[in-house]
Write a structure and sequence with these properties.
The protein is of the alpha/beta class. Helices cover about 45% and strands about 20% of the residues. It is elongated, with a radius of gyration of 19 Å. It binds calcium ion (CA). The site of calcium ion (CA) has 5 residues, from loops. Calcium ion binds next to loops.
Amino acid sequence: MPANLFIVEDEMPIVTLLKYNLEKEGHKVNFANNGEEALLAIQQKNPDLILLDWMLPDISGIEICKTLRKNNLLKDIPIIMLTAKGEEEDKLKGFQTGADDYVTKPFSQKELLARVTALLKRSRPSVTADTIHFEDLKVDRVEKRVFRSEKEVMLGPTEFKIIDFLISNPKRVYSREQLLTNIWGENIYVEERTIDVHIRRLRKAINIEGKKDLIRTVRSAGYSLDG
Ligand code: CA
């Protein structure tokens, strides 16, 4: 159940360790070392879960939490607060500002991973599910097979990744850039029109005869899975 995670933390050794352990679990991990950078990156990446440090050099974790909860597009992202030992009062405030869970530093990596998994399962069932449906489309993530109206559809590996990604957040429009980052990864050079080629293939494969087009092209914005 790979998810896109985001770490906001100014202590680099903690970031490095977390990133290492979360990536080992198959997650994609991005991070920021200060609040301002974090808010920008979170808007751009729309992660599945945020690990948010309480004490940051510029904006506090609480402020970030509040800002996210006020943003219609980002308010549902689950947040785990990382607090220092003894900040009991802060924990309380953290919950009031909308954090979903908290972990006290120093924390065990094992415990944190368990919290991440539990929270993802609770809040993002579409990200963690083995099988996922949208209309008459079914994606089996374990066997990596796709069905439309119970008929198997044959897809290449990239087309599979695209549909697997789009079905995690149906109706959400993703720009070509967001698709590139999420499917090919960062720092990999792929031309944007390559996306169009793969989308065309995907569309042709899943829009079997007589069935409606489930891929929506939004002019100058990108693509979404929509019925
Ligand atoms: Ca800190």
